[in-house]
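Teaching assistant here, posting this on the class forum so everyone can see the example we discussed in section. The complex has two components, and the goal was to see what a joint structure prediction looks like when all of them are supplied at once.
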Amino acid sequence: MPDGMLPELLIALGLVVLVVVVVFVARRGSQRDADVLDRPETTKAPVTRTEVEPETIVEPPPDVVEEVEVEPALRPSLRERLTKSRRFITGRLADALGQTPDEETWEDVEAVLIQADIGVATATRIVDDLREQVRERKIKDPSEIMALLNEELVSLFDTEKPRDLTYSDDRPTVWLIVGVNGTGKTTTIGKLASTLSRDGKSVALAAADTFRAAADEQLGAWGERSGAQLVKHQPGADPGAVAFDAYKFAKARELDVLLVDTAGRLHTKTPLMDELSKVRRVIEKEGTVQESLLVIDATGGQNGLNQAKEFARAAGVTGVVLTKLDGTAKGGIALTIEDDLDIPIKLIGVGEGIEDLEPFDPKAYVDAILA
Amino acid sequence: MFDSLSNRLDDIFTRLKSRGRLSEKQVDEVLREIRLALLEADVSLKVVKAFVKDVRERADGAEIHKSLTPAQQVIKIVNQALIDILGEANVGLEVGSRPPRVILMAGLQGSGKTTASGKLARLLKSQGRNPILAAADLRRPAAIRQLQLLGEQVGVPVHAEPDSPGHDAAGVAGRALEYARNEGYSDLIVDTAGRMHVDPELMKELGAVAHAVDPNEILLVCDAMTGQDAVNVAESFLEEVDVTGVVLTKLDGDARGGAALSMAFVTGRPIKFAGVGEKLGDLEPFHPDRMASRILGMGDVLTLIEKAESVFDEAEAKKMEAKLRKAEFTFEDFLTQMQALKKMGPMSQVLGMMPGMSKLPVADDQIDNQMPRIEAIIRSMTIQERNNPQVLNGSRRKRIAVGSGSSIQEVNKLVKQFDQVRKMMKAMSGGKGKGKMKLPKGMNPPPGMGF
């Protein structure tokens, strides 16, 4: 919509809202409905994100709060981890495909895909394709249909695409970690830091989540475990300033990789998304953001696609980290994200242990969903 | 929240409205669309199937009301089916026979348990109660510290044992209960570690914690963005502990929220609270009836009224009403009202609560983004100009444009539109004269929803 249209529309809207509000407030005296209006008086004094004077001190040594037990290093494969749910789906599919495919069969296949959070539109498309091919090639054998479905799903991924995280020529390589609240950004950074350290790389962590209580301390605990250095400011400080200082810190010490943790934010909150853009811009004043990784929760549903769109716009997402794949959720929305937005899934999180971050392999993933 | 779903049903029903009597085939079509809409809103497939079946049965058995069009009838049935799952009204916390009332928070990682615990503590405290928090998440790094900081922010003490071994969550919770009982606290809110519902060890731990504190409430904290997995999560937690209610978090961010329906359907327990923002005050009692009408695209007017009442001064509002009615409403008044309106939250949020507004062809954040521009234009006017827009000649408009960083065309448009709307308001409020102003068509406030 052209900008010029907006003021007139908005003023009308504004006034309409106003009118409603006025009417209701005016009504209050006469038509109060005690039941309806019964509300605890809690929303009146909201605690706000306070602007704190930027604290310029960098605190390089890891800031450890408490020891937390690390999960024992049991490392079943992704396939094993997904066994439970897989058995269910396999049974369903085999049942469905065991007979001559009819309308109900295809509905069941579609249901399996929908339940993997692939999304109705994509699922319908896949099933339509599959039907078409089965009819054309006159396939009757259920296992062949299964193989075809598998192929169909794998083909949604660009299997040639490199999925490794990349490094910049100059040190430090900067990886920015973004996402909505509670997807596992900080945990992912902890795992990344461990992997990097184990590979002999020097790592710094930027605690640019200055909003959530104790986020820096959570990151610090991961830093301690992995031997990475933590740069942090005061709670409530400007995240851009933290990132900037961390960059200069890592550069001065010629560290290999800087991982920037950011506050979880809902992609619909424009000011917070702007803040994220600023973090990126601030780093880019001095260097480059090599990877901007969007952390997507596999238990999440269809709004993952909107998340990806908005974060791509604000932070130039280069890859997806699909976390929490160790439950029953399949994270099918990541497939839709890659298919629709051409943002590759690069890593998957399959547990709480420090090692539970694996490179994404489309074939293994599809197998894990269907096999 | 829920906008996509309500848009979708809006579309369906708009189409339905244009037709006469519904044939069976049309009912099929409607149900297919409802199924699709619910799936796209992340309602779990299993729940969708049951829901659609339910609606079909009701539609088949329904008596034909002469006063209702077939479309209205379907809407009514769908609405009732939604309410039957979500519940009639908000269900509060169990009262509990003797203090402290114990509230256990459980859920997956990242669903927002710790934040919800802090918010709940604040809510209880504001109701004059005397709660204490217990930090029984010994798994996630700094989870204890996070809860302690939240406790500080809301002024509620936190029982924490940072040195406890990671597996002694039940012990911590038990000692917290003992402490709370001895010290005479009214409520104990136990924050637990996030756990995968398929992790037998951690699920057992949850059972042990519950056993240790014998909670009055076990609240399952669920992310409103949850997808199809919601049913599995709900079923697994129900198996381990006796879930008494659901807290739906992150409900502010997103157009969907089908998990609400899935959770309520599977657990058979009410959704008691909704997290609607990042501030610690942003935890509201969940109102299922409002949510149902919201899903149906009827807006969420009751919440709107509540919010309005908290920020608008009644006497002032009456004055404004009079001004509006007489078309004496000025830019200055508009500016004042906008300031108050801002306190109600983002414009997009406020608009989203209004019936029919979800259909407007404007992206949410466009509204919020553009508001400051309008404000800038108005603020670039002198007081005289704001109160008396007729004096706005060419050179004044030019000055305003420059001052506000906009174009003269934009200023012109704003002034013109303002004038038109003002006249419109006057016309609308005419007619019945003295009494209340009439709302534009289709915007009648819905207590009862007027089917």
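For the discussion questions: Residues 76 and 319 of chain A are 25 Å apart (CA to CA). Residues 1-7, 28-79, 81-88 of chain A have pLDDT under 50 and may be disordered. Think about how each of these relates to the inputs above.
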